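Reminder to self: tokens first, then the designed residues, so the page reads top to bottom the way the pipeline ran.
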């Protein structure tokens, strides 16, 4: 894992020394936190608290194929298991539900998109204990690649490495099968820490490989499209978490169009997917927005070469 980005170091130290959340730096997010508390109170008053919690634990697997420009023939059919916003300490039985689901799924590699804990400051012991159980069911079955989100401290990356994950914090790894390769670029959190460094991540990237990017926030999608990425995987938005019927997100906590904030989308030649997440944040409830694990099968596009 690369050395900590200076922006992340300063803000993590500030949170530790002052005992405050990094999100308090942004007025818009302070307002979001207050709103979440109001929403939680309203759900209790309307007797929807139990339904919202039940929805939040109704984890599902979504499956789809994605064409990837330049994908080698040997990688056609490779299935990635992508998860983001695990927030494993947000709901008691969530880690057990997730671990049981993963045991029943088939995939070739795993990508984790950050936010492993619920709180964005304070201790990490509970979330790491729960994360350890999830990792135990993954490492050894398939390569596990991970990046960090705005709720994570840099030391969580060390924890992931210790338990067998390949942590990509402004770094690149190459997944290979049958002579073909795929560059997986993992970027540090940009939404809160402003720590994404695409140039550093690409510095040692082998030439000529199709490349996909993993970033906690979708706010980099335009930049990544300009840099020729075939596929981008994002999280952070929770798909809105509490949505109107039909899945329309009321809030996304990201500076992106709503069509970029949930599910599959396309921007120019860039294929994208923004996960609704596994866990919850703000209040432990979901409406019209189920939590999900994505099984993404890569396919050669029309212009792919063998």
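Designed residues (306 positions):
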């Amino acid at each position: 894992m690369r050395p900590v980005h200076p922006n992340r170091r300063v803000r993590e130290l500030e949170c530790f020394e002052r005992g405050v959340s990094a999100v308090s730096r942004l007025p818009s997010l302070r307002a979001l936190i207050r709103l979440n508390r109001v929403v939680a109170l309203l759900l209790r008053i309307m007797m929807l608290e139990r339904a919202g919690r039940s929805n939040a634990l109704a984890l599902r697997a979504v499956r789809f194929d994605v064409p990837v420009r330049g994908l080698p023939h040997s990688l056609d059919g490779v299935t990635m298991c992508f998860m983001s916003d695990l927030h494993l300490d947000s709901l008691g039985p969530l880690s057990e539900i997730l671990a049981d689901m993963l045991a029943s799924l088939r995939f070739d590699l795993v990508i984790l998109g950050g936010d492993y804990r619920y709180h964005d400051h304070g201790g990490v012991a509970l979330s790491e204990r729960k994360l350890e159980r999830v990792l135990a069911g993954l490492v050894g079955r398939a390569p596990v690649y991970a990046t960090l989100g705005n709720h994570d401290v840099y030391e969580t990356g060390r924890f992931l490495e210790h338990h067998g994950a390949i942590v990509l914090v402004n770094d690149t790894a190459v997944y290979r099968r049958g002579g073909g390769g795929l560059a997986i670029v993992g970027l540090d959190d940009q939404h809160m820490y402003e720590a994404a460094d695409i140039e550093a991540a690409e510095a040692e990237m082998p030439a000529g490989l199709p490349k996909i990017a993993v970033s906690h926030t979708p706010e980099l999608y335009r930049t990544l499209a300009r840099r020729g990425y075939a596929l981008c995987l994002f999280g952070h938005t929770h798909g809105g978490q509490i949505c109107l019927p039909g899945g329309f997100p009321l809030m996304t906590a990201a500076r992106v169009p709503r069509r970029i904030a949930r599910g599959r989308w396309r921007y120019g030649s860039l294929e994208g997917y923004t996960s609704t997440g596994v866990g919850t944040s703000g209040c432990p409830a979901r409406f019209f927005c189920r939590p999900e694990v994505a099984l993404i099968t890569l396919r050669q596009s029309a212009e792919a070469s063998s």
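The CA atoms of residues 2 and 242 lie 36 Å apart.
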